[in-house]
Amino acid sequence: MALALRDLAPRRRPSTPPTLVVVQGRRRRITRMSVTVVGVIVIGLAVLGVLHTQIAERQWQIDQLERSISSAHEDFDTLRALRAELRSPERLNTAARELGMRPATASNFIPIDPQVLATTIAQTAMSPERSAEPEQLAPIDQFRLVKVIEGRRP
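User: That's the sequence. What structure does it adopt?
Assistant: Structure tokens below.
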């Protein structure tokens, strides 16, 4: 059996101390790098989730607005149909006859005093030329005006 020999002689210390260098192990560097990458990925996914939530909320608001616009269009169409029905010549004729009115056989123009006309224009701030402009008339009134100018009764 062999015994290991120990050197019992005192060791000499070198006169200059050795330079110490910190050597990081590869394992520690890989761990730090993987934690950093995982952290960046987690933060990126959180930001992506917040953005997706914001987009979904905005789309919901847009859908609500589109629904209210569609509802307003339907209401407008319903009211326009009701207005057309109420303004129809047959209904107006029937309502007028129920009130005891009858169609006019002739029409006469009454001359207006220029002083009364001037006072009316000053009080309403509207000239007679502007009040008869077709742009201010409703489409049906414009149609009637064209028919009257052509000599046909609407």
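The chain has two domains: 27-101, 114-154.
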